[in-house]
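Notes from the 1:1 (GR / supervisor)

We went over the backlog. Supervisor wanted to see one worked example end to end before approving the batch request, so GR pasted a single chain during the call. The sequence is below; no edits were made to it. Supervisor asked that the structure be written out right there so they could see what the output format looks like.
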Amino acid sequence: QLLPVSYPGSGVPDVFRNWPAVLQNKGWEFNFTARIVDEKDFSWSMGVNWTLPVNTLKSFPGLAQTQFAQILMVGQPLSVVQVRRFTGVDAAKGLFTFGDSMVGHFDATGFGGLHTELRYKRIGMLATVDARHAMGNNYLTTLYLTNPPGSTLYGLMSNAPAALTQRWEAPGQHAPYQQVTTDLNTPAGREIPLYTASSARLTNASFIRLKIIKLSYCVADNMLKHLHLSNLTLYIAGQDLLTFTPYKNVDPEIQNANILPPLRIIEAGLSVGI
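Structure output shown during the call:
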């Protein structure tokens, strides 16, 4: 298994070398296609697929003596993370609190989609839906890592997500986020690295997305003859119009507030054959 190794003073960030590791990738893939209706004036077809992937590190002799001992675990996927369990915010002190250690991972446990096409006389419609079931990276922990709320470190003074207005401000208050601080060398500041390395990183990034939908109309043959055309189709289409997800405020695939998410696109046009 090729894995990166850091050599100080080598002049390059990482060097890849073979390790005696055995990685297994397997899974199940299900496909279903059907022509539900196929009549002269009406037709309807559908296709559904779903994949259940499994990624496992089967063995790694001498793992405990390598630089990967705190990153990889035999019997777990490569995306495994070993973290302390995030237990919330102390209502009296306003600081993040943590429990025992736990294991999580960022691999998708399932992904797939649905494609369907309908036609009624000269009107057509097609739609594609994408879906994924997975844990993802909480974008707010990334924010705490790169630009801690309240901190002026490196001059990083910028707008923060509205979610952080729910921070702790007074004893007895139950809040999802601890008090903010301008100094990382304070009790609140010292909790931030623990927070960003805890299970707070892990959040449900599953989604169902209407990827494509298109409506079309084919002009009748007698009109085509009058226009001296072989075909003429008018259409309106949309991409990424709707996403249903428990992942809040940021795109569940991008998981980063500083990166532009997939754009919602609506277009109209016509297809002409001469």
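Supervisor's comment: The chain has a mean pLDDT of 88.
Batch request approved.
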